[in-house]
Design goal:
The complex is a heterodimer of chains A (about 200) and B (about 200).
Chain A (H helix, E strand, L loop, with lengths): L9 H9 L3 H23 L2 H17 L11 H20 L7 H4 L13 H19 L3 H12 L4 H8 L3 H25 L13
Helix pairs in contact in A: 1-2, 2-3, 2-4, 3-4, 4-8, 6-9, 7-9, 8-9
Chain B lengths: L4 H14 L6 H20 L3 H32 L40 H16 L18 E10 L18 E9 L4 E6 L2
Antiparallel strand pairs in B: 1-2, 2-3
The chains are: A mainly alpha (about 200), B alpha+beta (about 200).
Chain lengths: ~200, ~200
């Protein structure tokens, strides 16, 4: 997200976009689409939901760009806020479907190209990453979002607080609690693994 | 090493793996096409000032209609005198073509016109009569044309059905005061809702 000096600033692009400049919108879109997609993916643990949310976020952004208030934060914060809101709304809608086991219901994302998996170490690593994905996806939403924002997307506490709309202290406490929960879940998942080929020190109990 | 170091390492691995994830490219086309469409619609959209003017005119028209209706209802309500609550409920006779000469002493003579210098009570009766003229239903007998003297304020003939047992209390002699059944009577009712005279119909 760090803009290079030569690149136009988000706010300038936004002004051009509001005036109807397609290139400005396309630049903003390409700058943030993957970020929004990854955030929605980690929050929802579903590729389909993440795609829908990404699309909806930018459609809403183009329609309501005039509502953006620069005093309330960066454009990226605004987009994260929209992504968070839409993901939560989508998850609420999806809650109608009965979830049998939160940790096993999460979609597997081990659909990386086969070529990337070379040798046993890579297989093991993929397995470990899959477990972390499952564990993060099984966290309660309030803890999951702070872990995704602060630990996976490298936001500061203040930025996360602005995105979530809560106090910085709340973010800090949720993050601590979330990490403890995550460690518990990782340990449980490790124990459940029928064949634990090679554990990194991070997964040891 | 803190307790969450393993967690951080695990999250770091997940973060590295996530860097390889990208939004599908088919979203690009959809989103950019939607932007083009919204820009086109914005340029072809009607002038917002004209749209607001239309809305304001509509709102003003609606307000005028509502205020006029309220004023009309209030005016009607003000013209209708409130009826006393202790008044007995009576049914207005469907046909009041029965002669009433016997209870109105001088029905042939018209009441004298009320002059501008008449006393206040007279004026009140006159205004009450005017109001009653507006309220009289077509099938009711308007007796105000034939009144003078003490019956000036009598405005309606009402036919009611009374139990026979109530007749002695009204001063009417009956052979058997304990007899059951009802009788039809006609009552002259004043503007204050009180009965002035009563006569037997049957």
């Amino acid at each position: 997200m760090a803009d290079a000096a030569a690149e136009p600033q988000d706010r300038d692009l936004l002004q051009l976009m509001v005036a109807g400049d397609r290139d400005a919108f396309a630049t903003l879109y390409r700058r943030y689409r993957d970020v929004v997609f990854r955030f929605a993916l980690r929050m929802s643990c579903s590729d389909i939901i993440a795609q829908d949310v990404t699309q909806d976020v930018f459609l809403a952004f183009m329609r309501h760009a005039g509502r953006y208030d620069p005093r309330q934060g960066l454009v990226s914060t605004y987009l994260y806020g929209m992504a968070r809101h839409m993901t939560r709304r989508r998850l609420r809608r999806e809650r109608r479907f009965v979830r049998l086991d939160p940790e096993t219901q999460i979609e597997s994302e081990s659909r990386d190209p086969i070529g990337m998996v070379s040798g046993l170490d890579d297989v093991v690593r993929q397995e470990e990453i899959e477990q972390v994905r499952r564990a993060v996806g099984a966290l309660p939403l309030r803890y999951r979002e702070v872990i995704v924002l602060c630990d996976l997307h490298d936001h500061s506490y203040a930025e996360a607080a602005a995105i979530i709309g809560c106090a910085v202290g709340t973010v800090r406490s949720r993050l601590n609690r979330g990490r403890v929960l995550l460690q518990d879940k990782l340990e449980r998942l490790n124990r459940q693994t029928w064949c634990a080929p090679k554990r990194s020190p991070g997964y040891s109990t | 090493m803190t307790t969450d170091d393993p967690v951080r390492r695990a999250l770091s691995a997940l973060k590295d793996a996530d860097r390889a994830r990208h939004a599908p490219s088919d979203i690009d086309r959809l989103v950019l096409e939607a932007f083009d469409r919204s820009v086109r619609e914005r340029h072809t959209a009607p002038n917002p000032a004209a749209a607001w003017t239309t809305r304001l005119i509509g709102l003003a028209a609606a307000l005028i209609v509502i205020i006029s209706s309220l004023a009309y209802v209030l005016e009607r309500h003000r013209q209708i005198p409130s009826e006393p609550t202790d008044r007995p409920t009576v049914a207005i006779a469907p046909d009041l073509r029965a002669p009433h000469d016997e209870i109105l002493p001088s029905t042939a003579s018209s009441p004298p016109p009320v002059s501008a210098g008449a006393d206040q009570g007279r004026r009140r009766v006159s205004s009450a009569r005017t109001m009653v003229h507006r309220r009289v239903a077509p099938r009711e007998l308007d007796v105000t044309q034939h009144m003078d003297g003490e019956f000036d304020d009598v405005v309606r003939v009402m036919r009611v059905r009374l139990p026979r047992a109530t007749l002695p209390s009204l001063g009417i002699a009956v052979i058997d005061p304990g007899a059951a059944g009802t009788v039809d009577v006609e009552v002259l009712v004043g503007v204050d809702g009180r009965a002035r005279t009563i006569r037997m119909v049957r």
